[in-house]
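Thread: "does anyone have the structure for this chain?"

Original post by V.I.:
We have the sequence but no experimental structure in hand. Need at least a predicted one for the grant figures.
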Amino acid sequence: MNRVVRIAAVLSVLAFSGFGSSAAHAAPVPTTWCGGASIAQTDRKPDLVVGNQVNVIYARPNDVPDHFGQLASPIATDVATIDAWWRKQDPTRTPRFDLFGFPGCGSTYGDLDLADMTLPQPSSYYYSLDTRFNRILNDLDGPPYNVNDPTRKYIIYYDAPVSDTVVCGQGGGYSNLYTSGPSWAVIYLQSTCNLNVGDGNHAAHVVTHELIHSLGAVGPGAPHECAPPNDGHVCDSMIDILYPFLSANSVFDNEVLDVNRDDYYGNGGQFDIRNSAWLVHLDLPSFALTVNTAGSGTGTVISDVGAINCPGACSSSQVQGSKMTLTAAATSGSRFSGWSGACTGTGTCVVTFDAAKTVTATFAAQEPLTVSVDASRGSGTVVSEPASINCPGSCTASYDKDQVVKLVAHPGTGSRLEAWGGACNGRGDCSVTLSQATTVTATFGPATHQLAASVSGKGKVLSSPRGIACPGRCAFSFEADGVVSLKAVPAKGHKFTGWSGACRGKGSCSVTMTADTAVKATFKKK
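Reply from O.Q.:
Generated one for you, tokens below.
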């Protein structure tokens, strides 16, 4: 659901007076937008700069031709011109415009993160001045645009016919727009205000005027605030950038950012725009952050802002006090093992720009260890040290390359480990060095086997170890792989004539218990 934008109390309007003839003006700062065919309806990430930012948008109703391609570079030129004008007014400040790192771009405002947004309604819906501002903002509030970030101020170049053509733009936001966003500055390209985008004059003037409104000017108590209906402006000088009217012969380069610095900028008051969080403090030093990757593995490090995407873009300079969050992600076959330098541990890395810093992300190459369990004749599990494998269940895990992993077999009740297979053998401990992908098999079988004895004639069979005394107790379960010796003892007047089954002949009978086994002793009269 779209929110209802209540901004009437802080909505300011710049009107075109139409008096005077067009005057020569200073040359703009020519800028080629580097986005090319990169059309975005939302804010591109990551941002090049840290902090609260000013986003720039081209917007049109759904029945108006898209002029984004023709206007992108002129808009970037006007933004560059605004930056130059502001620095001339105050060498220690300039608006912090949202920038994106387009490949191969050689200019600051060629990297302007400029969005192209198509409104969902036809131009007639936005035609009336009474409802236009709110309707534009309400329709840009939801997906996919989401023009509602509280850390942003938005400049919107609105390209469509308008009712009151002498209204050049509007700016405003919520009642606390000095300290928080979002707030908006809308410029009406199809007004009759001689808005030639890219010439560095009237369009740049209107954008700057409305942007300052969106930053919170003019605050309460300004000594030269105009009387209603032009309140929210200042009337002490026609060349003040917040004078309520734009004349045909005005020259943007000659406009002043608060004449005498006593109303809204540099006045030291509660709502001094010079202290706005949306302005870059050029008088503060900037510091460089360098990111390195190391280790036997591979991975990437990206930043939430500042356009670090390393390897590739591995450094960023930001103004003192800025903060940046770095996130490391290992590629397949590697593990992120930790930070060093300005950060430690394995979580996200938050860097404060208070000195030149270096951060290294170390990645370890990994190899997979796969365990299989043959429980067709018994039961059991295999666990690893260090822990990761508990098979059946978790039977595959990756470990650092060349790490030694110990596997321990835990037979189920009535079962035993018969043998290891693959990278291990025998029945003892299994330790593997993971120089490559490795497979180990554990085969479980019964822990005991039954030996059954029978007697033909008169006599008895005794076992060692004890268990069988036949006749009487003629079957017993012995430990698997154990050796059982059987002794034939004839009754008086009888003789032992031989073994059959697992033993043969008349000699001793020893049975290795690898399976259930039967032996028969035959006795006859002498």
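V.I.: this helps a lot. Residues 8-280 form one domain.
O.Q.: and The longest strand covers residues 357-374.
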